[in-house]
Every structure is written in C-alpha cells, then in structure tokens.
Specification:
Strand order of the largest sheet: 3-2-1-17-18-19
Number of helices: 19
Shape: elongated
Strand content: 15-25%
CATH superfamily of the largest domain: inorganic pyrophosphatase (n-terminal core)
Radius of gyration: 37 Å
Number of domains: 4
CATH architecture of the largest domain: Alpha-Beta Complex
Distance between the termini: 60 Å
Structural class: alpha/beta
C-alpha cells in the first residue's frame, strides 16, 4: 500500500475554540473525500480552558502541538543505512558499501543505536598500512571473520575464538629456519608441507592458514586439536592471503566512536546547514526520537527537501501563523477575517467569507460535500460558533452562523443556552491563572499604518465580578509586558457578554491617544468603557487601524 502524504491543518497561535475545532473538522472532511493524502489537525499554541472544556465535553482528543512548520531533517530524503554491527570485518563493510553505493556506513548495535562510523577512506587507509604485523591481534580478530575474508573455512578449532596475541607472518623457510623467527601465539600462512605444519605446532602458534585449498594431514589436525591450534583452509595463494588478511579485522577497531556529528530527525534544516558546511563530511548519521540511527543525509539533500504541506484555518496573518510558515507549502486558507499579510509562492485555494466563525464555513462544506456530520464534530462546530459570536451577541454574527449553530445543536443533541453558559463559565474560570496566562490566552498582534505594532488580548465572561478580578491582575502586568514581542502598545478587552460591553485596558506610548481617536471618547480611571463593543475583529481593530491613518496623530 502506497504511503499517504501528510498535510497539516492548523489555526493561529494562541488558538481559540474556533481555530481548534475548525482544524479538526476540516481534517475530517478532507480525509473522507481524498485517498492518497492524510490530513492531520494541529495546534500552534496551548489550548485554553474553554476549548479544553469543549473537547472533553464531546470526547475529542486535542490536536498535536506544532510550534514550528519549518523543514526538518525528517522532511529530507534520508538514505536508509544497511545493517552493520561492530563485529563485521572490513571486507564485509567494504562489500556492503559497494553494494549500496555509499561511502559512509553507520555501525549500530542490535537495537539500532549508533556505535560508530566507518568510511571508504578509513578502509583504504588500513589496507595501505602493510607494515603492522600485529594488527589482527591488536584488533582482537575472530577466526571466523578471518576465514570468511579469505574465502575459506575453519577446519580445526573454535571458529568463534579470537586471535588476541602474536603477529602474522608467511612461513616459507625450512623448519630449522622457522625456529628463529616464529614465536609462540603467532599466526602462520603456510604451504602444503607437513613438516612445516608440524614445526609450527611444535612452536605453539595460535593459527595455521594453508592456501590453494590444501588438505592438511590427519596427524597435523590431531596435534593441532590437542594444543587448541586453529587451522584455516583458503582457496587463495599465499600472496593473495597475505594481501587480504588485514581486511578481516572488525570494524570496531578503526571506526570513529568519539565526537560523532549526528543530527536528529527533529532538527530544523536551518539549524544544521552551518554545521554541515563547516565539517564537510560526505554523510551524517540521523537519529530518530527513539535514539535509533535510521540512516544518513548529505549536503545534496538540501536540493530535494520536502517542504511541509499545510492548510491554514481561521487566520491569514503571518504574525499569527505558526513559526516558519514561509518555509512551508500553503495549500489552502479558510478564514472569516480581513485579508492579512501572508504571501504564497503560488496560487492557493483561498476561501474567505464574511461570517462570524470559521466553524460556520465548515458546516457549509459538509453540506457541499454531502457528508454526514459526526455528532462529536457537530458539537465542536456549534461550540466554535457560540464562542466566536459570543452567543450570537457579536456584530460579526450573521444569519448563516445562527442557522448553522441551530442545525449543529440538533445533531449534537445539546441545548444552546445551557451549553453556552457552561462553556463560557469554564473559559472564564481564571482564579488560579497567572496574569501572563490570562493575557496571552486569546492574544493577537497587529501592524497598522507606519509600521505601528500593537497587541490585543480578550477575555469574555458572563460574570462581571470575575472580570473585575481579572482587571486587577492585568493592569500591573501590562506595564511590564509592553515592549516585548515587538509591540510598543498593548490593549486588553474585558468583555461582558450579558451587557454587551467592554472595558478596554491600555498601556504604552500613544495607546491612550490611539483609543481616544478611535472611539471619540475619554478614558475613566485609566479605562475606556465601550458600550456595545464585544468584537475584537469587527469593532475594535478596524477603529484602531483607522485612528493610525489620521494625519493629526503621531504614535
């Protein structure tokens, strides 16, 4: 079965109920109408209490957290590495690399954990070093690996044993001369003469290697058995055996183990480019979240990276989008706000409707696709509409929103008035919240004329006393918060849903003047009392934006 391509459906930072529920609903719509793509709902920030209540109420898991949509190592074409552990010989490693057309081979344990790294250059350097007669013993080379490298077999002794002491030499002299240069525990490459074999056994060598597929005598085998001497038979001639034998050492002896430069599948490509350029290795091992080495990447992988593919819901502002949105491929935008600052590299499907909630658009899409709305998702979308329209009290609310909410409530089997009170109560229960959590629970940043940046947070509640307590917490916090995140002016809306009014808190140079011009009124006790103003999107932001355009005002 062909694997499905992943497409993330995600709302804005500091997500509200509409942002979360619409992402879940749209992923459901697309997954039921497409075959070769998998749509996955995500969130770009922490879920607030209201949304948490809604998700729990209808038994839906929150979308996974995605703070950055930039390209990661896992989005590259990682070259899967063949299995290779530290016990394989250099010859094995060379064959594996040649068969797979690779120049770097990660060495892993049985659990896939990276233990070292070996390259073609490492093997070549060892092969060229022909002066070290003790290389095999220092590398603790297994007799089985020696036999494999020489294309032969162990005909006597324990093939799983290791050559751990002595040198390797070719015995071409007569037995009398052999006594002078053969030492105990040496490994001897020999011809077919029995007397030479017997002399080697007499001098207690560790291993005898005979070439040309020569069968040693029964007498030699018996004596070797008594002294635990290994006998290896190879089809190659003496010269070839001498040339190949160093390739039998285990890769652990020469592989690089310390200060390995590795990357995680979760690393962002922007963060690793400089490292790759600085070190200029041919390939770098990649480690997944479970600590296993899954393969390698190289610099040329940057040429064919797979950008993350994303659908944006409930926003089209770059400042409100998930981090690194410019590095992703935006496929669609579905929104109900004013046109924002996002730019795309190519035309995209952009659905923007003047309704009070993105959830209303989702309801329409289910109908357009002739899809039955699941009861749980009907509950989520109904909650989103109630939340965004402040139970139909917001001036952003349209007849489409009311009709959609009514139909969704029937599917979800909920009483709108009762459910709305429960939801708003859960969302405004902020007694134990720190001022920072309250301020950023529903916060958005805006840029007006002359690059004036300002941030606006909002809390809506049915309880006037609770709004008063929140106000006491927020006023001192706004003083310390102004100037952070690139904004010099901050506002906060304390919205009373029942009274359809807002107390607007403000701080920052020019913030009072900006609001005075916007609403043509004076503040009282450091607060603007805005009767009939409940919508940030339709009532507050347009007025503030217009005030910055007036020539007699300098912010």
């Amino acid at each position: 079965m062909r694997s499905q391509k992943k497409i993330f459906v995600i709302g804005h930072k500091n997500p509200d109920t509409d942002s979360i529920c619409s992402a879940i609903a749209y992923a459901d719509i697309k997954n039921r109408t497409t075959q070769d793509q998998k749509y996955i709902p995500k969130r770009a920030g922490q879920i607030n209490e209201e949304t948490e209540y809604v998700l729990n109420r209808f038994g839906v898991q929150p979308p996974g957290y995605l703070s950055n949509i930039g390209t990661q190592v896992k989005d590259m074409d990682i070259r899967i590495s063949p299995d290779a552990d530290e016990s394989i010989s250099l010859k094995n490693a060379w064959d594996i690399m040649r068969e797979n057309a690779i120049v770097t081979l990660p060495i892993r344990d049985k659990n896939g954990v990276l233990e070292g790294l070996i390259t073609i250059g490492d093997i070549a350097q060892t092969y060229m070093d022909t002066t070290d007669s003790y290389l095999l013993s220092r590398a603790r080379t297994q007799y089985k690996r020696i036999a494999e490298t020489l294309g032969g077999s162990v005909v006597e002794g324990n093939e799983h044993g290791y050559f751990i002491k002595g040198k390797v030499l070719v015995a071409t002299a007569n037995p009398h001369m052999m006594q002078q240069y053969i030492e105990e525990n040496d490994m001897i490459i020999m011809g077919d003469r029995e007397e030479d074999h017997l002399q080697a056994i007499k001098q207690n060598v560790s291993c005898i290697i005979v070439g040309m597929d020569i069968d040693v005598s029964e007498k030699v085998i018996n004596l070797a058995h008594e002294k635990d001497i290994i006998i290896i038979k190879s089809p190659y001639d003496t010269f070839t055996i001498a040339r190949l034998i160093n390739q039998s050492i285990p890769v652990r002896h020469i592989m690089k183990k310390e200060n390995l430069i590795t990357f995680s599948t979760e690393d962002f490509t922007d963060d690793i480019q400089d490292v790759m350029i600085k070190h200029r290795h041919r390939a770098f091992p990649v480690i997944n979240k479970r600590g296993k080495c899954v393969g390698t990447i190289s610099r040329r992988n940057f040429l064919d990276m797979n950008k993350k593919r994303v659908v944006l819901v409930d926003h089209n502002e770059k400042d409100q989008a998930v981090d690194n949105i410019e590095k992703a491929e935006i496929l669609e935008i579905i929104d109900h706000h004013k046109l924002g600052s996002l730019e795309t590299m190519q035309p995209v499907s952009f659905r923007n409707q003047p309704v009070g909630c993105t959830g209303t658009i989702m309801y329409q899409m289910y109908g357009e696709q002739k899809l039955e709305i699941p009861q749980k998702i009907a509950g989520l979308l109904c909650a989103a509409i109630i939340s965004d329209t402040l139970m139909f009290r917001s001036p952003t609310c349209t007849l489409h929103d009311k009709m959609a909410a009514g139909a969704l409530a029937l599917i979800a089997d909920i009483d709108i008035d009762k459910f709305a009170k429960e939801m708003f109560k859960a969302g405004s229960n902020l007694e134990d919240k720190a001022p920072e959590e309250i301020f950023y629970q529903d916060y958005k940043k805006f840029i007006a004329e002359d690059e004036v940046s300002f941030g606006v947070g909002q809390i809506s509640s049915l309880d006037a006393d609770e709004l008063k307590r929140i106000k006491e917490k927020l006023i001192p916090f706004m003083v310390s918060e102004c100037g952070r995140h690139g904004v010099s002016i901050v506002y906060f809306m304390l919205t009373n849903i029942i009274e359809r009014s807002t107390e607007l808190l403000y701080y920052g140079e020019g913030s009072e003047e900006m609001a005075r011009i916007a609403f043509k009124m004076e503040p009282e006790d450091g607060v603007f009392h805005l009767d009939g103003v409940v919508s940030r999107k339709k009532q507050l932001i347009p007025a503030l934006m217009e005030s910055t355009q007036m020539g007699n005002t300098d912010f």
